Amino acid sequence: MRIDILTVLPKLLESPFNDSIMKRAQENGHAEIHIHNIRDYSTHRQKSVDDYQYGGGAGMVMTIQPIADCINKLQTERIYDELIYMTPDGELLEQSHCNALSLKKNILILCGHYKGVDQRIRDLFITKEISIGSYVLSGGELGAAVLVDALVRLIPGVLNDETSALTDSFQDGLLAPPVYTRPEDYEGHKVPEILMSGHNAKIDEWRNEQSILRTKKRRPDLLDE
Questions:
Q1: Options 1.10.3720.10, 1.10.1270.20, 2.60.40.1820, 1.20.1440.230; which CATH number does 169-224 get?
Q2: pLDDT by residue (tens digit) across 168-218?
Q3: What is the pTM for the complete model shown?
Q4: Do 97 and 147 meet the contact criterion of CB atoms below 8 Å apart?
Q5: Which of 123, 125, 148, 167 is deepest in the core (most CB within 10 A)?
Q6: What angle do CA 129, 135, 141 make, to 5 degrees?
């Protein structure tokens, strides 16, 4: 998978993709993540990428020219399966979206900033708009990092144990059950005996029951769905 990210703050995205699973995914050839500075495409003498709103109002708006020029250039080099805009008014990101997007070959992600981008960019180029939650961040960079992490870890070969992602929360519509490791007894707090029984069928049954109970308590909306 190749992911191109368009941003006015490229340094903000350096750390998330240069450590741990994201770093290994790139080193092993499972993912390519390329960050593009929108300012590099500005024709303005001072490389500005924003301007005042038509109609007045607080906040600046990202202008069309540098974003469009960057997208047009990248589209001459490859065909994108999705052109995604990270925005608070986008569709709320769900695990099912991540599963579907992880199967794509080329994805472009545009990070909004200031008051957002000129609506015509959204109308002309964007195929999917995504929000990571009902709140507003200073820009789309952190949301893009969340999205990329959620996608890349699903690519076969990225995780050491490929079945791990299949047992994560939300994959089956439930939250994941409690997990335990050594020591067996910590100051009188013991690991449930069933997990040490070696009876795989009963362990699976216990985990499923715990998932349902945890989901009912913490995210009953998932059970309604």
A1: 1.10.1270.20
A2: 667 778 999 999 999 999 999 999 999 999 999 999 999 999 999 999 999
A3: 0.89
A4: no
A5: 148
A6: 55
